[in-house]
Amino acid sequence: MMSDDHRLQVFDETPVAGRDANERAWSGYFEAFPSYVIYPRRIRESGDGIVAILGHTTGSHLGLADDEESLLTLIWIAECLQGAVRGWTLAEDTPVNRDRYGLDAQ
User: Fold this and answer.
1) Domain residues of the chain, as ranges?
2) 10 closest CA partner among 48, 61, 44
3) Kind of pairing, strands 2-10 and 16-17?
4) 8-17 — which CB contacts under 8 Å span 24+ positions?
5) 39-97 pLDDT, tens per residue?
6) How far apart are CA 24 and CA 6, in angstroms?
7) Statement: the pTM of the whole predicted model exceeds 0.70
């Protein structure tokens, strides 16, 4: 469930703010890319409601073959508050971000 003040931040793009705007944006994305799938590789939850997911996608707007797209990893950060997702951020998979969110190689 998204909070009313949900905010989607995709890298350095202008954020999408508000549940209604995000529901429209996601509906449009899934309609345009019905084969889109997120493949989590590592998940870490902090005690303050932050969940970080390291993984890759296939079927996205990148237009790559699945085997090519699966080589491109990224980090999703979900900010959870009172049973709802308040924020969803896409971040680059860098050593700094892996360390920041506890996603270092095991």
Assistant:
1) 2-99
2) 61
3) antiparallel
4) 8/87, 8/88, 8/89, 9/87, 9/88, 9/89, 9/90, 10/89, 10/90, 11/90, 11/91, 11/92
5) 999 999 988 999 999 999 999 999 999 999 999 999 999 999 999 999 999 999 999 99
6) 13
7) yes
Q: Which residue's entry shows tokens 């699966």? A: 70
* Alpha-helical runs (H) found in 33-103: 66-69, 95-100
Assign domain 2-99 to its CATH architecture: Roll (3.10)
Q: Could you tell me the two tokens for 13?
A: 């793009």
Sign, CA dihedral 92-93-98-103, equals: positive
Tell me whether strands 50-58 and 74-81 are parallel, antiparallel or unpaired: antiparallel
